[in-house]
Specification:
The complex is a heterotetramer of chains A (785), B (136), C (487) and D (161). Chain A has 785 residues and is mainly alpha-helical. Helices cover 74% and strands 2% of the residues of chain A. Chain A has 4 domains: 124 residues, no CATH class; 251 residues, no CATH class; 144 residues, Up-down Bundle (Four Helix Bundle (Hemerythrin (Met), subunit A)); 77 residues, no CATH class. Chain B is elongated. In chain B, helix 1 runs antiparallel to helix 2 and helix 2 packs antiparallel against helix 3. Classes of the chains: A mainly alpha (785), B mainly alpha (136), C mainly alpha (487), D mainly alpha (161).
Amino acid sequence: MIATLSLHLAIGIGILLAAPVLRRWAAPLAAVPSLASLAFAMTIAPDVLDGEPWTATFTWVPGLDLSVDLFVDGLGLVMILLVSGIGLAIAAYSGSYFAPNATAARTAGLLVLFAGAMLGLVTAEHVVILYLFWELTSILSWLLIGQRHTDAAARAAATHALVLTGSGGLALLGGLVILAREAGTWSVVELLADPPGGTAAGVGLGLVVLGIVTKSAQYPFHAWLPGAMVAPTPVSAYLHSATMVKAGIYLALRLAPAFVHLDAWQPVVLTIGLLTMVAGGLRAIRQDDLKLLLAFGTVSQLGFLFVLTGAGFEYATIAGVTLLVAHALFKATLFLVVGIVDHQAHTRDRHELAELRLGTGWGPVRVCAVLTAASMAGVPLMAGFIAKEEAYAAFIYEGGTVGLVGIVGIVTGSILTMAYSLRFASVFWRRSDRNDADVKSPSWTFGAPVYVLTALTIGIGLVPAPIIGDLVDVASGDLLGAEVASELALWHGVNTALVLSVLTIAAGVLLWRLTDPFVRLTGRAAPPIDGYRAFQIGLEGLFTLARVTTTRIQTGSLPRYIAIILMVVVGGPALVALTTTSLPDLADPLDVPVQLALAGFIAGAALATIFVPRRLGAVVVLGGVGYGMAGLFVAQGAPDLALTQFAIETLTIVAFVLVLRQLPARFSRSDDRAGQIRRMGAAAVVGVGAFVLVLAVSGTDPTTPASDLAVAQALPEAEGRNIVNVILVDFRGLDTLGEIAVLLVAAVGVTTLARVGRRPPRTGVPPLPEVDPLDPTTMDKDART
Amino acid sequence: MTTVFAALAGALFATGTYLVLQRELTRMLIGLALLSHGANVVLLVAAGDPGRPAFLDGRDEPSAFLDPLPQAFALTAIVITFGVTCFLLALAYRSWVLTQDDTVQDDPEDVRVREEPDADIERSGADQPTIEAQDR
Amino acid sequence: MTPWIALPAVLPLLAAAASVLVGRSRAAQRIIGLGTLTALLGLAVRLLIETDRNDVMTTQAGGWVAPLGITFVADRLSAIMLLVAIGMFLAVLVYAIGQGDEESRHVGFHPVYLTLVAGVCMAFLTGDLFNLFVAFEVLLVSSYVLLTLGGRLAQVRAGTTYVVISLLASITFLMSLGLLYRATGTVNLADLPAAMEALDPALRRVFLLLFLGVFGIKAAIFPLFFWLPDSYPNAPTAITAVFAGLLTKVGVYAMIRIQTTIGPDDTVVGTVLLVVAALTMVIGVFGAISQQEIKRILSFHAVSQIGYMVFGLGLLTVAGLAAAILYIAQYIVVKTTLFLTGGLVERASGTGHLDRVDGMLRTRPLLGMLFLLPALSLAGVPPLSGFVGKFALVDAGVDSRSWVLVGVSLAVSIMTLLSMNKIWAGAFMGEPTANAEATRPLPTAMVVATGVLVAVSIGIALGAGPIYAYAERAAETLLPLAGSSAP
Amino acid sequence: MKRSVIVDVTARLILPSALLFALHLLLSGHDRPGGGFVGGLVAGATIALIFVAGGMEDVRSVVPVRPWTILGGGLAVAASVATVPILLGNPVMDNWKFYVDLPLLGEAKISSALVFDIGVAAVVIGTIFMVFEAFGDEEPPEYRGEVRQGPGSGQHPEVGS
């Protein structure tokens, strides 16, 4: 299996990379992994059918208990066969459907990757790996929907699908991780064998269900699926009928037996599933676009599947597995038929199609279309009938409220299904006329996948037990942990289920005849907003929220940023210090008046810098602060510091003067009173904050081993008497090294900024764009030509 | 003693903050210089009570020295501040050359995002027509 | 004593000096830059292996004993950060050389780039807080200059914001160092825990908050991040890539250091960090989905993603810290790559504005892949490296029952995906715009550098097992007392 | 800037003594106030003096090397003091010293600290030189403000280059 998955990955990526070269060879190449996967399924099938699941493990991140654990039991086998079998059909079909160009090749490559992800999903035994492949299918579906990327609708639909299934996927991850935590295992099998209980597990399960519901397009999250129909038809046929949307169903099948004992489980599943089945059907019967009709039909059928697979009791599970197979077969076929029609006739609208004449070459396709639609409708002799019959029987057998609600719901849904199936099929059973066809008939190879799949549908419909009986039994048995003998058959004798089936078909035909008045009637009862619109509003809301938040916070105003940052960084800790630490007595004795005088001078000068109206004046006053600091250093006993401060202050003033001579002499006056007050407030917070922080530490009296060492070792070890200098060049020389690096870099920056774009002083010739202010050769001449 | 220094640090931080909050680059620069002085005052507090210069001439008790380590820190910081101040001056200079304006403007892209609210939704693709529009 | 561990901090300075001296020859500068970084890469690999063998390696600058001289310490955290950082520096330098622009126009580019390298390496290796201050200054001043090389108006404006706020961070850092020395008499990280023991626990918390705030400015956490989206996008692409990919992470690194040194069990501060983390994630991603320009979108994500790292730190568990380390390591690669790809888009189409670029997928499908993989990784899509990081965080969060944070981080990933989709739909999908004809050829060096980084991030995903194990060992060294817990 | 004969002469008189003082500070820094920084700063101040006296042209003619060389050379020296010991297997910035007998001055100590300090001084001098290079030139008024840009214009094409 790992080899198969790797093959999917390798061939998928290979096709993507080599797309422009491959063109028409992409489709045949894309069939290879599916064939390999089918071959693999055949080799393990005997063991699996004997009740021996196949397993494999591949370590990934042991520290997080992440390992690619795979297993194939009965259900896994069914899914592999579906995914790879239909994948093979799609690959064959794509060869005829697409023009042989790079885009088509890329689609084929993505489809291969998708098939790989889907296979991983249905064989994952580690919950996180399950999520991994789940999310991969979402991402690949996003890319596939967006393939026709020049189309605005495609982009919107891709976004919609991505956001919905992506969010669902994350809910799933959260839920799975919670469940796994509660169960104490990452293994899917172990988790389900001993399901956790309690509130946390309940929340986790809820999140998992949310994931299932979004992925399998249940109401009210269904709308992305019809939107995704902008994708090319092979993509729709594969992803949105046979595989990806089945991921949720697959998971529901696995979870249901373990969690069906919870009070909330069956009501939730039945409500969502039946609502989806009926609502989807109601939408389907009013479609004129055949592909959309199928899309809503798929939504409806997914609801049906969710009811069956989630119901959790034995017969429902059997019916669920059977319908899973039947649905994949007929829905893929129908999509392929629509694709053929669309490809040849360039329309999918039933009214427009009614105007067109189809030639005799269309015969096989039309027959297949009608037969497969019959399977969808649950007409006897077709696979769909077998599944629906099982479903009816299951709910009748179950009885009780669940049985009653279930049977009423699925009968209603099935009547709708019958009606929209007829609506679909009616396009194809009209008598066709002679040879003057308007539409060219499809080639034999184009139709071949349809013929094969239809044959399977009929085969299962006629003799279900030999074809899928064992598979269904083993799959259901593995799920339920019991021996299951389903006894699938065309004829069970006259029973309630059969009567209901007949009634369903009759009511369906009636409804089909009355479609127009019915649509008018129900149209009035339609909800005010549909799912897509709701999504749109939600997304707009999110964007608005984001923008409002951002513009409130990211105002672009530097003073505002500074005020917030300083108040948080200085004010915050100061507040904590003020409220939680014991500050020392403020009135400590002042024994050195010189310091007090200097401090007063410095503070006064600092205050004066605010009020000086002229730039140079302010700089001179700032110089006063600096010299005052130098004086303070002297008074405290730090002559080196004082000397440096003095020299640096002088140079700083010179540099200021050199720059400021270019600028206006006076500061501009602002009359922004509110702003002044805000600034003063911020200044007060920061000033008091600094004051408090210094006080907070002033009570401490630590030993300072580093200083003692410096004093002790300066002369004997470093042979220097000036301890500060010894620290700078010996003990902490690296600081100094960093510091001169700062100086060098600053010098580079200064010259760059000051000289970039400066015109040559005398020549008057405009400089070339490449004038490099930092180039030593230009430094002398000021310009290089 | 430390109360005086705490007050001095507070004063320098307050005046520095006030100036940094102005929109004129020159005043911001002066404010930054005042804040740096404030930080140096804190380093001076860290050096402890006044003492003798830290020179070893054989006469002093080592404990009478002003703690040399914070002095070294302050010295390093002063020089670094000088380099950065020069760079900021160059920035102010460049800004003046380009705009003939010494004030710091709001970030234009932030302003644009604030004033053109509709572009996002369009970009998200949320208001694009979809195939479902054909639904009758 | 292992003297060679200090080499990454000083060798680039020597190289920078050499680069200044050979300023006339761009070729010589390139050889010096590439050669130095290649040598450092080798050193970093060796460091990674040897720290894993020895837990912690130290050296004393000048041979002076511990609190007197500056201590250099290499543990697993420094080693992994150093390796990733140097790898990025090398890749980005190749990219910048391919791009030309600033690199070829200014003599100062190479020397300043090398001092930036020196500053970053020094910050990762030093065991001394004042030396960390100096290292920050070296890397910050270098970043100021790199940001404004070219002196364009937008750069000057962005530079002003960046420089002023960074300076405020430096000044408050210096002030905090003064206060710390006053209270404890040491700035040596190894001595701090013991020295802190003597202090009032409330005062200890004050210090922790002070330093977290100071480093938080550099890390761009909420509410200290404003400067980042207004400044980074205006630098030359290669520079933005290094800044957003790497520099903020130096801040996060410092936060991790200080938290694990003086407050490994301060759950109050841990809770504060978790709140900050949630807000950083949400506000950052909100900003990202409001923007219309690729580099600005990515810059806001740089903020948002910091939230994830702070999340891991705030849990104060080995699992959380290990997840944060893994997250940082993979994120640096991913984010750098995204910026480089953004730069390729700009290069190819002349603009990074989503309103003015369209249909890149048609004209340059390869670029689409180079964008898509890191973009999905950023959003945490499996099985890419971002997923492993995010999963590790979520797992650690669930472990600590931080449900809110887990929920927020998952919700933010879908919003991240949404904004990546915005770039994808805006720049890559659709009909190529008219200016597509004016597209310029992409220099091979740029594409190769980007491609290699994409490959590296895939490699991180594949090799996540050993990398996480390493990160876990790193976290265990940092938090020796906290117990690790299994699922 | 107008030239003044008095300033000019004074500058030339002070110059040698200032430089000597700087050298003294540099060499004795290990024992007395001074050191590489202060020495460099004082030497840098002499550049300011020359600048005041004769403008940038004089500065360039008096200082024989270009600021780039001073800066790069200074950092190279200082960084070598840090790096070379590692390559020899010693701690970074390992200290060493030896004594030489100089004919006139007697025994002199040459130490890593001294070499390092010389590098520091060079970088400080180079930086100050550079600042004057950057801002010192008189700009002809007609070139000022030609590349003016209204505030608020975001995308700015290669201004001035």
